Amino acid sequence: MNANRFGLVASILLIAINLRPAMASLGPLLDLIEHSTGLTSAGAGLLTTVPVFLMGVGALLGRPLRQLLGEINGVTLGMCLVTLACAGRALDHSATGLLLSAALVGLGIALIQALLPSFIKKTLGSRSSSMMALYSTGIMSGAAMAAAITPRVSMQFGWQSALAIWAVPALLAWVVWWIATSGKVRLNSEHVAIPRYSFWRNSRAWSLMLFFGISTGAYILILAWLPPFYVDLGQDRKMAGDLLAGLTMTEVLSGLAISVLVGKFHDRRPLLISALVFTLAGLVVLHESPLQMALLAMILLGLGIGALFPLSLILAMDHIDSPEMAGDLAAFMQGGGYIIASIMPFLAGWVREEFSSLSHAWVGMFVALVMIAFLALRFSPSSYGRALN
Fold this sequence. Notes:
Strand content: under 5%
Helix content: over 70%
Radius of gyration: 20 Å
Oligomer: single chain
Distance between the termini: 37 Å
CATH architecture: Up-down Bundle
Number of strands: 0
CATH class: Mainly Alpha
Structural class: mainly alpha
Shape: globular
């Protein structure tokens, strides 16, 4: 790998690492945030729902964003917004300020997630599937670091600083990306005629959206509410954050395994079903024995969710050879999918208020994942070309 390619890959991984800390840092501190700001559980759920919803809306605008900003400039702007949102939490940590920063984070991540997949496919070609798996793994690595580090920083400097500190790695990623892509801006800004295809009228595109939305909803639900679930069970914030970090690191290992295995499976369905089985088993353990079998629950959930996220992205890219149209499909799938997923943390907050427990949220997620297991069986490679005609 030459120096230019190495710098580009490094910048993509750094960006990926910074796409979840602004959300993953909230869970271990949620009781402190609720006490300090007066937010209810449903209101606290909005701190995750708002950015995820905006990520979805932004992803649906992938084509116009690419034509207006270009992939490189759009990703640069996205990292700028994430950096400013994290830094802003040190200045305004009221309920309103936190919700505004959540919206800013959502807009920034939306730009990146709408534009970076097509950039990866365009620049890395045959290696794009492995890079997408590494990109997804980087996202989960960032969440793990945030879950483990945030409660420790909070103990020393307060929860406000613990949220704002994530502006530092975001700024680093912004700078490295700018350096790595500075020589490519002119090429990226050239106008390219992109064939138009309306995924709104295509049933396979909607199936991919639903699969991505529900499987990502499991990830977002765990990210937002696993630490508060264990705090409610009497565990301290550091332990709750460590559980989320351990789960997320298992997701990282699972994502790395997918990056190695995915090339051996032209038919992605065995991997998809295996990932769903692990996730379903993890939810059963979490519901039935959350304290005694916490480690097993974390391992099962991490293995399942860690595979589902990259597999969903790879599956969408499999359907179309054109980088631009593949980017459009990924944006459509992520757009509607993130809107679906954004409902999960808000509903879980409502469940917590109504029943004083999150157990019912795990049951609801289990039912939804069983439904998409039947959907996954339809994603045969022979159907790719027919499905999008």
